[in-house]
Amino acid sequence: MARPFRPEVLVLGLSLIAVGVAWLLGNAGRIDLLATLRGWWPLTLVLWGVLELVAYFLARDARRSPR
Amino acid sequence: MKGAKIGLLLVILAFGSTVETAWRIRNHFGPGAWGWFTGGHFQGPSFTFDAQQTEVVAASTPVEVENAFGAVNVSAGAPGEVRITLRKVVYLGAQEKARAFADRIQLQAVHEGGALRVRTNRADLDHRLTGGDSEADFQTHLDVLVPPGTAVKVQNEHGPVEVVDVARADVSASFETVRVERVAGPADIEARHGDVQVTGIKGDLKLTNRHGDVTIQDVEGKATLDVQHGEVSATRVGGLVVNGAHGDVTAESVHGDLDVHTQHGAVRGVDVTGRASVETSFQGVTLEKVGGDATVHTEHGDVSLSDVTGAVDAQASFDDVSLTRVAGPVTVAVRHGAVRARGLDKGARVRGSGDEIVLEDFRGPVDIEAERATVRLVPAGAIAAPVRVSATHGAIELDVPAGSRIDVQASAAPGEVTTDVPGLNATLTSAGRLTATLGGGGTAVVLSTSHADVRLHGGAAVAQKTP
User: Fold this and answer.
1) Closest-CA residue in chain A for B10?
2) CB B37 to CB A33 under 8 A?
3) Nearest neighbour of A45 by CB, restricted to B12, B19, B133
């Protein structure tokens, strides 16, 4: 049986990747780390919300079309 | 909602709050240990580029330097010209980009209002100063050589300042050290969050520092310091005024008056040619070799004064007062502390409670009120001035040297009056009361206590203590 889609796992993974990349670029002097984090961190909430909606609709479709 | 979702939401919100807080405070701190996070100021690869400019100026033209995020060094150079070196440090990953950015950083030397004003166009490039973003971090370091005898004004933020060999100095700086040396006239320094070192000022010195230690030496004029959070050390100054809040004050070789008003700081003054006035709390006061009067008020701290030429007015609480070799009259008030004095030439007026009062080798009139305190008096020679002691719950002991001509009135109620003074002619003796004369009388000695005894000592014991 396939594991259900869990948005929070995806959000956590993508957020960690994003913060790590930003940190690397900050250490390399390519970006201002704090300014970048400050400008983009709310995107985490937006992304999570979108994924929650996707998960909801996927779960609803699964209930309506039993195998 | 599952617990994992709630936990993740809290983590994200906490992370966002931390970032927002760091963003708001980033411009209030210089680049320090947390610089990597609070914006990465001056972190990563950097490239340095120099620019030079020389301006011809008339004699005695004042020079004003304005800068931020970089050092300012001003010193004497050749007559008739101001030579400026701007060192630009750009924090970008590629040298080409750094050079292109550095080319936009311009040195500006403008003759305005009879002065030469030196600055950069940093404000046009660094939008951080107005709360915005910047294309790159960069530092601007200015080295300025001015003609000898030039009055210099420096305003620098987030960078060290050094001014040497000028006619007068007016410095405002923050978040780094300030060093001013060899100024032919007055100096006015305002610093924040950094140590200040001043040496060799021919005129007066006015100095303000909010957070940081202050060290001054060889100031021929009067030094007026306002140091709120930092220690003060002054050596060889022509008068010193210190207003502070938290930090010790040390002054040595003050050729004038010493005035210290502070809190939560110990004060030590050595070799003051004028008068000394000290007010502090929660710490002690030590003064040695004062050429004038000494006035000391402290709460919850001890007082130690020695070799004072003028009068002494000392007030203390919850600690002791110690006086040694005072030439002028002494006034002491102590609550919950002892008074110990030796070598008072013009007597003392003492109000004390809670501990002993001991005066040794004193001359002149003595007037003592003691509460819950014993009193011990050892004159330096024959008693020739009135001695009055009023005590409660404490014994009184008076040594009477040979040659004293005194009228004694002693009472102890309840208590005893005892004497072994040879030649004392008692006219009234009763329980707890003695009226007597010595040497034909003349000088009043009035001793009274309650709930303790009065003892008069004489003869060999006194002779040994007063050679």
Assistant:
1) A45
2) yes
3) B12
Residue finishing a domain among B176, B206, B230: B176
- What pTM was computed for the model? 0.75
- Interface contact flag, A34 B91, Cβ < 8 Å: no
Contact B454, B377 (CB under 8 A): no
Task: Dump pLDDT digits (tens) for B304-331.
Answer: 999 999 999 999 999 999 999 999 999 9
Write the pLDDT tens digit of every residue in B112-132: 989 999 999 988 887 655 555
Burial class (CB in 10 A: 0-12, 13-18, 19+), B251: buried
Q: Is residue B270 part of a domain?
A: yes
Residues B200 and B116 in one domain: no
Residues B198 and B88 grouped into a single domain: no
Chain B contact for A40 (CB, 8 A cutoff) = no
Any chain B CB within 8 A of the CB of A22?
A: no
Closest Cα in chain B to A28: B44
How many structural domains comprise chain B? 3
**Would you state the structure tokens that stand for residue B215, as one six-digit string?**
């060290």
| DSSP line for B107-124 | EEEEEETTEEEEEESHHH
Do B196 and B171 sit in the same domain of this protein? no
Q: Which domain holds residue B359?
A: 329-467
